[in-house]
Amino acid sequence: SIDRKKHNLSVNSLEMAAIAKSLASKGNRLVAFARPHLETFSVHAKRELGPPTDFGAVQREAQALFAKAPGFMSTPVRRAVQNTCVAVEIAMWFYVGEVIGKRQLIAYAEK
Asked: Sign (positive/negative) of CA torsion 93, 98, 102, 107?
């Protein structure tokens, strides 16, 4: 249903073969370029993104984290509620900014 002459879409088989050959060579170069980077990523991903194997280290890290913030566990309820209110206020300012940026309450305007 597309008029080839109107849209200048006449491509012969030799041109298509040349395009396919060009894409294949570019794909091979891309794979050759990406392989060392992906191997490095794979090594780091296996080490960093895997589950912990030494649970004693996890427990020591958690204790060190709570030792750095000793007041966290002994915070009075009143102060914890105040901190929560401050966090909610900050979140609400973010949402108000979103509404102002959208210039409407529900969703972004469709164009």
From this structure: negative
Mean pLDDT for 6-13 is 61
Per-residue model confidence (pLDDT) at position 84: 94
Dihedrals phi, psi of 107, to nearest 5 degrees: -145, 175
User: Which three-class secondary structure state does DSSP give residue 6?
Assistant: helix
Q: How far apart are CA 100 and CA 88, in angstroms?
A: 18
Decide: 109 and 103 in contact? Cβ < 8 Å: yes
Look up residue 80 and give its amino acid: A
Q: What is the DSSP string of 23-69?
A: HHHHHHHHHHHHHHHHHHHHHHHHHHSSPPS-HHHHHHHHHHHHHH-
For position 89, what pLDDT does the model report?
A: 96
